[in-house]
Design goal:
about 140 residues, alpha+beta, Nucleoside Triphosphate Pyrophosphohydrolase, 3 helices
């Protein structure tokens, strides 16, 4: 029965004062390689969603969030490769222009870039990030 349970995930849209979104190019993940993605990942057992956001953000980019805001966008996807179902909760946080992310997972991410929101709308993003981005920030 457990193998049919969806995996909980979080995604964090990090937006700076120039209205740029933080995106990283996925590599060596077997899911979405070559696509751009926001920071995020799986929620650990007994971990609250906000804590998962803050942990994933720090693990992937070195950025520390004092707070993140959920904007009630939740997606349900089925991964055809792994035949796994995901429920993803999306959060956003604003940061000053001077914040510089660090690529803390170079085996999974080619690097982090600040992309103007107008450009990001037209990029092919991993999973449902494209839909959420357009719904929230357009």
């Amino acid at each position: 029965m457990r193998e049919n349970m969806p995996i909980l995930g979080v995604g964090i849209f990090v937006i700076n004062a120039n209205r740029e979104v933080l995106l990283g190019k996925r590599i060596n993940t077997e899911r979405g390689d070559g696509l751009y993605s926001i920071p995020g990942g799986h929620v650990e057992p007994f971990e609250c969603l906000r804590s998962a956001c803050m942990r994933e953000l720090c693990e992937e980019t070195g950025l520390r969030a004092l707070s993140v805001n959920c904007f009630a966008k939740i997606t349900f996807t089925e991964d055809q490769v792994e035949t796994q179902r995901y429920i993803t909760f999306y959060y956003f946080m604003k940061v000053p222009m001077c914040v510089r992310p660090i690529n803390k997972e170079p085996n999974k991410c080619e690097g982090w870039k600040w992309i103007p929101l107008r450009e990001a709308y037209n990029m092919k993003l991993f999973c449902d990030s494209q839909i959420v981005l357009c719904d929230r920030f357009e």
